[in-house]
Write a structure and sequence with these properties.
By secondary structure, the chain is α/β, with parallel strands linked by helices. The chain is built from 5 helices and 15 strands. The chain binds zinc ion.
Length: about 290
């Protein structure tokens, strides 16, 4: 930690019966604040998976259902603001929960991203960067809110987004991110602010260009937001890969790299869809520091 020694010589006027001038030398040791990165967690909706077995290769979760959180995050760095994921589609706000035609999922969302950003005095124009762990519809719901931001996206994810392969696939909603035209394509890891405190890490497999977010926070220490590398705690414990993943082998490789990195950095891992992890996070206007 960088230390700053400041010597201040003060000429003090000491008030007493007879005023006198006294030279006081005061040495003040100040600890220069470590770059303050703040992680704000917001509610981007709720997903109930009625057929949890979709999240496994075999029949691990046959007959089970589970409620999943769907948060989005704001990372405030002294040099700018990054929004990580944006939750479910905002046309759900004010509506009854919606169940997909195949009965697989029920989704709901209580509030818009603009309303929630206001709790920390931010407007969309304050956001310099937007990035998604991946472009499934439950992460890009409010993406177009940030049409003036720079979209940080892995090249394979962007190429898939612009290809015919995305058409008709109900996991994607191309129109939800159609206004993002300031594109900065990534080919691997990316240090967002150039000081090592906010790093996007390529972890493909769930989608073509899935990525996770590594943060170095002054108090909480190293943190990893794992995107959908895992959907809930039991997924991680058993390294179980969902059957709807883009590339199973790539996912398994990413899991190995992720776990090695998390261990090496001694990082706290937050599984974004895990409701227990979501509950642990301070909610805006409070931040993880
Ligand atoms: Zn998801």
């Amino acid at each position: 930690m960088k230390k700053l020694i400041v010597t201040i010589t003060l000429l003090s006027l000491v008030a007493c019966k007879e005023t006198k001038k006294e030279e006081v030398a005061t040495q003040v040791e100040e600890t220069a604040a470590k770059t303050e990165v703040l992680l704000y967690t917001f509610d981007g909706g709720t997903v109930t998976a009625h057929n949890l077995n979709l999240f496994a290769q075999g029949d691990t979760y046959q007959g089970e259902s589970k409620e999943l959180a769907d948060p989005f995050y704001v990372i405030k760095h002294p040099d700018g603001v990054l929004v990580w994921d944006t939750g479910l589609p905002e046309n759900l706000v004010g509506q009854d929960p919606y169940t997909t035609p195949d009965g697989g999922f029920t989704i709901s969302r209580k509030d818009s991203i603009v309303n929630q950003l206001a709790r920390i005095d931010l407007t969309p124009s304050d956001v310099e960067f937007v990035a998604f762990s991946h472009i499934h519809f439950d992460h890009t719901g409010a993406a177009n809110t940030f049409e003036n931001a720079t979209w940080l996206v892995q090249t394979p994810e962007y190429d898939f987004a612009m290809s015919d392969a995305i058409k008709g696939n109900s996991f994607y909603a191309s129109e939800s991110f159609s206004k993002l035209t300031n594109v900065f394509k990534l080919n691997g890891d990316h240090d967002v602010f150039g000081d090592g405190t906010v790093i996007i890490k390529a972890m493909p497999g769930h989608t073509a260009g899935h990525q996770v977010l590594y943060l170095e926070l002054a108090e909480a220490g190293p943190v990893l937001l794992c995107g959908d590398l895992y959907h809930f705690d039991a997924n991680r414990q058993n390294a179980i890969v969902p059957q709807f993943n883009y590339d199973i082998a790539e996912t398994e490789q990413s899991i190995k790299e992720f776990e090695a990195f998390a261990k090496n950095m001694n990082a706290t891992v937050y599984i974004q869809h895990e409701t227990d992890d979501f509950k642990l996070m301070p909610k805006a206007p409070n931040a993880l520091k």
